[in-house]
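Dear H.,

Thanks for agreeing to be a second pair of eyes. The structure we're designing against is below in token form, covering all 338 positions.
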């Protein structure tokens, strides 16, 4: 829980926070951090490299300096260590596409529907549903490419953390571009996977699966997870970022679907945003839950104990929870009894 605020300037810092985020997105769109990746440069040089007028660029740079994204030594500007590592295109840990495609172009404008979501106003939502959000091919491609970039790191972490010995068939429900299936199949050479997701997303997944040479090990099914028949006889079912995105009334049916798809002794793996037990944060997880209220009126936020209780009520045993991405996601695993 954060300390209670005591000053109006602290409130203003929250209210004006979007200035910093939009400055970050704008810098990414002109590849400013990439233009500084080889060493310091002055504003005049950066203006020529980016094609942005000197006065306009200086205004943007002032915000980036105030945020600590850039540093300055006289007239020379440099990337901060974090910007150099995560915001330079082509860098091994590059994260910029996730910010500029998913956050800037989709989640940021979609938040205009938040008031409607809180009021239960279906007509005022940013999108009628996640399937509506991803129905346009261009939107699905932007979202999916950004999601893939943001998911590969956590997917590898989870692949290394999970004991999947004896697991040969994995069903990845709402698996997006296949980041988790790709990571799991790379880590476990005897594993094959099947991904279910919206048809527009599956088209993007085909590209990533093909580029990884996993066509023969990862099957793709286009459809809404709430309506499509899931293949059975699975050793494991993974649902990553799905339960936070659906209505509260959809969670139990999805857990029942997982039960039917699993072999006796099969493993259920749930990875998602989760609040702390007292529901007073963390801020990042709480914010992602809030975002779903802009696209539908019936999502629910949950803690790991709450989700574990629903899993147990669905009949699963050996329910365990662990932190995955600190302050953002956790993982709940369980077993279908033999």
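And this is the sequence the design step returned. I haven't edited it by hand at all.
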């Amino acid at each position: 829980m954060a300390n209670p605020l005591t000053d109006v300037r602290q409130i203003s810092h929250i209210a004006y926070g979007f200035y910093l985020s939009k400055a970050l997105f704008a810098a990414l769109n002109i590849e400013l951090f990439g233009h500084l990746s080889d060493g310091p440069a002055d504003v005049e040089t950066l203006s020529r490299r980016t094609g942005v007028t000197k006065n306009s660029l200086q205004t943007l740079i002032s915000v980036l300096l105030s945020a600590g994204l850039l540093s300055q030594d006289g007239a020379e500007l440099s990337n901060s260590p974090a910007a150099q590592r995560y915001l330079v295109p082509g860098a091994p840990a590059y994260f910029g596409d996730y910010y500029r495609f998913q956050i800037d172009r989709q989640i940021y404008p979609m938040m205009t529907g938040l008031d409607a979501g809180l009021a239960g106003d279906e007509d005022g939502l940013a999108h009628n549903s996640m399937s509506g959000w991803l129905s346009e091919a261009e939107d699905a491609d932007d979202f999916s490419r950004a999601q893939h970039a943001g998911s590969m790191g956590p997917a590898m972490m989870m692949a290394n953390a999970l004991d999947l010995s004896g697991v040969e068939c994995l069903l990845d429900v709402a698996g997006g571009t296949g980041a988790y299936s790709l990571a799991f199949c790379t880590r476990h050479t005897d594993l094959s996977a099947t991904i279910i997701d919206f048809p527009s997303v599956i088209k993007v997944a085909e590209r990533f699966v093909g580029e990884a040479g996993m066509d023969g090990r990862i099957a793709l099914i286009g459809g809404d997870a709430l309506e499509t028949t899931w293949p059975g006889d699975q050793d494991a079912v993974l649902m990553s970022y799905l339960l936070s995105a659906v209505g509260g009334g959809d969670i139990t049916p999805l857990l029942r679907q997982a039960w039917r798809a699993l072999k006796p002794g099969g493993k259920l793996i749930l990875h998602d945003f989760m609040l702390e037990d007292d529901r007073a944060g963390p801020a990042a997880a709480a914010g992602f839950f809030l975002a779903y209220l802009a696209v539908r009126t019936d999502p629910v936020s949950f803690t790991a104990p709450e989700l574990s209780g629903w899993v147990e009520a669905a009949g699963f045993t050996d329910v365990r929870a662990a932190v995955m991405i600190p302050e953002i996601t956790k993982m709940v695993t369980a077993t279908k009894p033999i």
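Two observations from my side: The chain has two domains: 8-93, 99-335. The two ends are 41 Å apart (CA to CA).

Warmly,
E.
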